Structures are given as C-alpha cells and as structure tokens.
Description:
Radius of gyration: 16 Å
Oligomer: single chain
Structural class: mainly alpha
Amino acid sequence: xxxxxxxxxxxxxxxxxxxxxxxxxxxxxxxxxxxxxxxxxxxxxxxxxxxxxxxxxxxxxxxxxxxxxxxxxxxxxxxxxxxxxxxxxxxxxxxxxxxxxxxxxxxxxxxxxxxxxxxxxxxxxxxxxxxxxxxx
Length: 136
C-alpha cells in the first residue's frame, strides 16, 4: 500500500521522477519485498551525478543484490559504497558477508581488515571471521 501511494505521488504532474525520488522508490520497493523491481530502477541512476547520493545508491544496490542471491555483485556494490566514502560498520560487515556468500573467504578477511574498529561491536563480525578462516 505504501508503494502504491509513493507511485501515485511520483506520477504527478511533474513527469519524470528525480534521482532522489527514484532512490526513495527503490528503497520502498525493497522494504515491500520487491528487490526484483528495485534493481532496474537503481540501474537507471548515475552514481557520478551530483543529484545522486552515491554511497546510498551503492549500499542499496548491494542489499538488493543480496536479497536476489547475487553475492558477488553485492560485494562489488558494497565495495563501491566504501570507496565512495561510506564509513558505516554495517556496510563493511555486509561486504564481508557478501564475500563469504560468494565463496571468497580471503576477500572477506580483507574486508574485515580494512573495516573500522566499530565493526567489533557486532557479534556477526566474529562469526563471519571464524567462517572465513575455516574456509581457507
């Protein structure tokens, strides 16, 4: 229902949705359980555009691709978010988990090594590290 309301707002008199509106719509689609619909919308957005929050775009792409069981693509997106300036510990953890799901334990450990110390506050960090070491 929320998705329908947002769609109606976007379809208003102004025509084409702005990049910010498209990002919000993709977020809503993901929250409503439609990652398959969110991904093409995210693909329309240019991360180089000044109108687009590149960090948010890449982070959302990564989450969508994880939901679609595409861990290698998700890892690329999370790495791009970090490269674009994302300092959130959760993004580093998602990168690590994506690398593990893509069966790349060495890259998962590299992601952990480059993560800020705030990732230590998350218990899944230690589980993922143990899984990565075991997989080597």
